Every structure is written in structure tokens, then in C-alpha cells.
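JOB MANIFEST
job_type = single_chain_structure
chain_count = 1
residues = 325
[input]
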Amino acid sequence: MIDFRYHLVSIVAIFLALAVGIIMGTTLLQEPAVELAKKTSDELTKTNGDLRTELDALRGREAGNDQFVLNQTPQLVSGDLQGQRVLLMDAPGDSATYREAQQQVIEQAGAVVSGRVSLSEKFFDPKSAGVIDGLVNTLKPASMSFPPTASVYDKAATLLAATTLTTDPAQANTVNPDTSAVLKSFETDSLLSTTDGDPNKRATMVVMFAPEKVFDGDNASAETDALVALNAGLDQGAKGSVLAGTAATAAATGGAVSALRDDSDAAKHVSTVDTLDMPAGRVVVVYALREQLAGKSGHYGIGAGASNFQPAVPNASTSPTSSGS
């Protein structure tokens, strides 16, 4: 007969064997797992370090390239816009830093900045369409007419172009007597503001600065369409026009530059540049204006829809084919 002590010893032996098995199994499995985890961690740490080194090198290269372009900019653009007057136009939410840097490069190219027109958010609000239409019909000269299909912003662009721009060098730096009250009236209704010079004294070219944030909300599409229509209309009244912004915003989906590039009609006439945040991009804006003087247009930068980083270098033996864009 098996006594109680035998049962007790058997039970203890079973649990002892189980404990030993668990300990041995855990030990045998733990060591490879720890080694694998350590190896993976070391590899990730090395990869991270390599990537940081590569990123630092790229940042250094970019800073060096930017500094080189900044130093060479006066030579790169010298005389390209000599004799031209350029109107600067701000869309709501554009970057003052980029705009001021671009103005300096335009002046280094020999152009005179006639002034700056800042469009307000109210200007693009669809609720303002009636107000704008009323102003246009009241202020337009009797000789000005619009196509039956013209939108409110098509009409506003035509009137603003007649006020601030001209394709005739003889009329540059003069006020259009038929539209002299337009800017003041639009300003009174908080649709725009004027600074830095006298935009009433007409320019020959225009650069519009795109918003640094994509229009959003229920009216985003209508606001973007209005901005595209405005650029197209201004171009008709000038020797050339450029819409400038950055690839990350203006050339992104829903951005102003992207929308204009997608508009088959406007894209034929208005040039776009999406590298306004780069010193080289600001040189490209001048080159795009220079190309417009030759009756051509293009879309430049690094964002979607850009055909090249910059316009082709003009042939020195080829003269401009047109006085307008």
C-alpha cells in the first residue's frame, strides 16, 4: 500500500520538475530574444545616426546653395526687367516675408514696383459678389463691356486691370482717368487696401502672391475659382503676370497655383512659380516675367504641374515676339 509520504514526495517531485522546466525553458528562450532585440536596437540606432548625418549634410548643402544664389542674385537678374513697372498683389494669407524678398529681387532686375494691392478675405467671400458686381457696374467706363458669360470676378478683374495696369509703355506711371475712383471705392467697402506706392499709376506687369494656406470650408472651391479668374483677367490688361507661391501649399491639392495650372484657359496665359520660399525660386519669378515679355508663359518649380524648374534661357539672337502675354 502506498503511504501518504509517497504521495507527498510524488507531488513535490512533479511540481519541482515543472518549476525546473519552466525556468530552463524561459532561460533558453530569453537569451536569443534578448540578443535579437539588442541587435535590432543597435541597427536602428546606427540607421538613425546615419540618417541624421545625411540630413545635416543635405541641410548644409541647401544652406550653401541658397547663400550662393543670394550672393549672385543681382547678377543673375540684372537688367531683365529694365523699364518695367510691376504691381504686387497679395491674396489673403500670403507670406509677407516671401513677398518682401521677391520685391527686392524684382527691383534688382531693374523694375520699379508701382505699389501693392492687398485683397481682403471679404473680396473672395461669395456673399460679397453682389457688392462687387454693383461697384463694377457703377465704376466701369461706358466703353467697357463684358462677355455675357463673364462672372463677377471676371468683371472685377477687367476693371482692376484697367485701373492698375497697361500694355502700353507710354501709359505706364500714369493714372487712367476713366477708372481713377476704383481703388478708393473698393477700399471703402473693405474689399482691398493699397500700400507701398501708388497702384493707380499703372504698371506693365503684375505678380500675385498666393495664400500660404489652402482655402477651406464650404466656399473653398468658389474662392479658389475667384482667385484664378482674377489672375486671368489681370493678365489680359498687362504685358505679363505671374502667380507665385510655395509647393507645400499653393501647388498642393486645392491650392491657388494648382488650381490655375488645372484651368486650361488661364494656364495658357498666366505663369506660375511654386518655389517662392527659395532664393532660386525668386530668381525664377523674374525669369518668368521676362518670358512673359516675349509673349510666352510657363509653370515652374517642384510641385505638381510644373513643367520645369525655370524657363529656358532665351537665345541672345532672338528678340521678343510679342509685347503682351
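[summary]
The beta strands are 85-90, 112-119, 192-195, 205-209, 240-244, 271-273, 299-300.
The longest helix spans residues 4-77.
exit_status = 0
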